Amino acid sequence: MREFTHSFELPTDPATALPFFTPRGEEAWVPGWKPDYLHPKSGETGRGMVFTTRDRTGATVVWTCLDYLPAIGLARYFRAVSDRQASLVEVVCMSLGEGTTTVRVNYRHLPLSPEGAADIDALQEADFRRDIDRWRDLVMPHLSAA
C-alpha cells in the first residue's frame, strides 16, 4: 500500500469548500469529469452512493461514498479500477478561522494485481502534490459563485 497526503488553503469556510469535492461539485471544475451516477441517479452525495468514471487510460473506475459528513468537513470514498487497484480517498476541510479553510486530500492505494502494483509504484509524491495544488487553482474561479 502507498499513501499520499497534501493540503492547500481556500479563502472560504469549510461548509462552502466541501461540496466542491463531491462528485457533483467536481463537475464544475475538473476538466473532463463526467460521472455516471448509478445510485442515486440524482448524483446526491451521501453514504452508499455509487458512480463510475474513467481514468487516464480509459479504464472504468467504480466509486462509492463511505462517508459524507458536512458538519465536520469530511468526505471519504472507495474507488476500484477493475483488477488493478483499490483506493481510499479522503477530503477533510478544516477552518483556519477568518474565512480560510485547509483542504487535506489523502489517497491510500492498494494493488489488486501485479499490474496494479506497477501502476502504484510508478506514482510520484511530487506529481501528487502538483495535482492537488492544481485543484486549488481550478476551484478558485468558482468560489465567488458559491
Automatic annotation (TrEMBL):
Full protein name: SRPBCC family protein
